[in-house]
Amino acid sequence: MQTVFSILLGLAMLATLGVMFAGMFGLARGDGNGARSNRLMRWRVILQGVSLALFVALMLVMRG
Question: What is the extent of the structural domain holding 48?
Fold first, then answer.
């Protein structure tokens, strides 16, 4: 079970990083598309929450 949580945590962290880079590249390009920026920000927050929840679950599995 620990391995599953570790893999899922890694995937969630990579997805968060990917969304962050997509947002940064959009800002650097000067897109000016506010709706896209808001959507990426929403996904970043959701993925960070998922990553945090998986981290807590991993710590609980390792503890017990």
Answer: 2-63
pTM: 0.85
**Total count of domains within the chain:** 1
pLDDT in tens, 26-40: 888 887 788 888 999
Look up residue 17 and give its amino acid.
Answer: L
The token duo for 17 is 């990083």
DSSP calls for 1-43: -HHHHHHHHHHHHHHHHHHHHHHHHHHHHT---HHHHHHHHHH
CA angle (8, 40, 5) in 5-degree steps: 5
Closest by CA to 50, choosing from 10, 20, 2, 1, is 10
